[in-house]
Amino acid sequence: MLTAYDYSTAKLLDSAGVDALLVGDSLGMVMLGYDTTLQVTVDDIIHHTKAVTKGVKRSLVVADMPFLSYHVNIEDSIRNAGRLIQEGNAEAVKLEGGREIEDKIKAIINAQIPVMGHLGLTPQSINALGGFKVQGRNEHEAKKIIDDALRLEDAGVFAIVLECIPEELAKIITEKISIPTIGIGAGKECDGQILVTQDMLNMFGDFKPKFVKQYANIGDLIIDGVKNYIVEVQNKNFPEKIHTFKIDEKTLEKLY
Description:
With 256 residues, the chain is of the alpha/beta class. It contains eleven helices and eight strands. Helix 7 runs parallel beside helix 8.
């Protein structure tokens, strides 16, 4: 699983064989330049999800429910989830949190909308968590995450993202629940993995989380390509004849 925020990237990832694409609220930082994900709106997610789904033929498209889109009441939660499906063309939605939002998750699922859960480090709660920190390192936190995973499974979610928790804890959760776990900074014992595409291709240079492996250096390739373009334009090496169009000579004579 990888993130996607636009048509052309989604088309490439889908063609490469990625099983699922997440239109994550990480778009706030990666695409919109925000410091956190908290400023992302439902309309932002809808806009990007519509673009992603147009480029996909086989991958499952999951849309993030952003901050405050499911925290106020059940009615708003169902309405916002429904908009991501109806207007954004997503096939499922993802919510961050456990027992605190269990009633919202059940209501959304009862509205016939598939839900993916998200436990561990939940970026929408960074102010409450005290920043981007590994979760589940002490007994109390670990037991709560395990219990929340069991609660989410009982509530009907079809999979759970486990973010920034110890590998051993992720293994216990994966063994205890029957639905897939998708890890990000949670080790290899999960059933699947997800990364932010711009991180794993080195296209987002603001920071690099410890759990990210860079599989290509697209950022440097883009910079090198643009620099070459600038030099060729300045030296009039581009465009060449093969990049230009011709006009009939008789027509041309009449223009002088």
